[in-house]
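Our consortium's second objective concerns turning raw sequence data into structural hypotheses that experimental partners can test. To show how far this objective has progressed, the report includes one record in full. It was chosen at random from the queue rather than selected for favorable results. The single chain below, 160 residues long, was entered without modification.
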Amino acid sequence: MEVVKKMAVKEEKKEKEEKTEKEEKVKEEKTEKKEKTEKEEKKEKENETKESVKEIYEGKDNKKEEFFEEEKRSVVGRIINIFVWIILLAWVGICLFDFYNTKTGKKPVFCLKKETTTYNDGYVNTCTGLGYKIFNYRRTSFNGDEYGPFWSKDRTADKK
């Protein structure tokens, strides 16, 4: 009987060893699967980053082309902008120069059209410039100079 008991104990040990071996194999398989999935995930992430880097790089090339196109447009825009500012500043300079001449008693230099209106008690010289009018009143009722926009009228015209 002891032999049978020993054999039964041996069989139990074998069964326990087999169970532990099976459990270890299952654990190893699970860890291997986890490692494989982790590796696959890493590879997928790397591929995604590579693709995104490619997209970014390709996008940069497109952005470079767009930048150069915008730069070409902006160069033309800058030239036009500078041209407009030069014209605007020249016009302001002309207006201020004639205004200064008028205020100091000199005749305006940049007149496009000169007119003289005669009244019973004197005359009015009108000088139409680039966007402005200068009235030089020499009348007994009103004597002086007036500087205004091109749409202004002689103040004494209706009293003719």
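The partners drew two points from this record. The two ends are 153 Å apart (CA to CA). Residues 1-106 form one domain. Both points have been shared with the crystallography group to help prioritize constructs.
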